[in-house]
Amino acid sequence: MNNSANTIVSRHTTSEGVVVWSRCACGRLQMVLVPHGSDGRALAAGGHDIRCTCAG
After folding, report:
1. What is the DSSP letter of 15?
2. Would you say 20 and 42 are in contact if contact means Cβ atoms under 8 Å apart?
3. How far is CA 16 from CA 9, 20, 33, 37, 53, in A?
4. What is the pLDDT of residue 50?
5. Could you give the 3-state DSSP secondary structure of residue 49?
6. Which of 6, 13, 18, 50 could be disulfide-bonded to 44 (CB atoms 3.0-4.6 Å)?
């Protein structure tokens, strides 16, 4: 998610974990939830998976 093809739009903490909204170079939004104490496993929504390498 932190590659050059993504721009972080919003990041905030919720009762469930940290929510990050980002935009791929192609313009699609992606939401990632990293649950508290999740051993690094995140949940993604928005048409791209968490390893999106979209170059537009």
Report:
1. S
2. no
3. 19, 12, 8, 10, 27
4. 57
5. coil
6. 50
d(CA 14, CA 43): 14
Average per-residue pLDDT for the chain: 77
d(CA 23, CA 31): 9
Tokens linked to 31: 């939401």
Is residue 55 scored above 80 in pLDDT?
Answer: no
- CB-based contact 50:6 (threshold 8 Å): no
Using CA atoms, how far residue 21 sits from 6, 17, 47, in Å, is: 10, 13, 13
Cβ-proximal residues to 33 (8 Å cutoff; 6+ apart), any chain: 14, 16, 17, 18, 19, 42, 43, 44
